[in-house]
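Thread: "does anyone have the structure for this chain?"

Original post by V.I.:
We have the sequence but no experimental structure in hand. Need at least a predicted one for the grant figures.
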Amino acid sequence: MNGFFSIAIDGPAGAGKSTIAKKVSKDLGFVYVDTGAMYRAMGYYCVSNNIDTNNEEEVYANLDKMDVSIKYIDGEQAVFLNGENVNAFIRTPQIGEAASSVSVHKEVRAKLVALQQKLALKENVVMDGRDISLAVLPNAEVKVYLDADVKVRAKRRYDELVAKGEKCDLTEIEKDVAERDYRDMHRDNSPLVRVPEATYIDSSYMTIDEVAGKIEELYFEVKGK
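Reply from O.Q.:
Generated one for you, tokens below.
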């Protein structure tokens, strides 16, 4: 241990990881690290520059042109790509898909994992993603696998997009969520897995407060030992 406490939250897309991680970090006074946003920044760069995210050689040829960094503005994480705050541009389904496909490449993961690990050496962190417990913070004091039914996750995403005024199809979203699950779980580099020591939480029919409360209980249990 380096004197700082780490909470790792893994799970599939739409399980509520970011929402829960933000609340837990705020409640405990920790720094929230949204690792998915970092991959989204890289996906955004690729989409903006017509780079095929499935083409490993093409991605690697452009890797040095993608400078991703994290800053905290008024307590909120902002992701910067080549010096530009890209928070406003990386939350679309298209960028989410690009992030998922670019994240399978080994060198991409190595670049961002190094950055994520440096953050955890300097702060108490709550970090969420796909491989936090397995690859990024294998020594995290609290590890959680946050899950939810595919239909529930698709409906959450649908409601989110509708609230933004976007036209979408629930059946298509459910299909996309299932396909992304498969890709994330079967990729060669740091696939989405539930490590044995992680506490499993199904958020399908739990409130945000209930899920956050459960994770905070785990923290205080460990902290009290």
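V.I.: this helps a lot. The chain has nine helices and eight strands.
O.Q.: and The chain has a mean pLDDT of 92.
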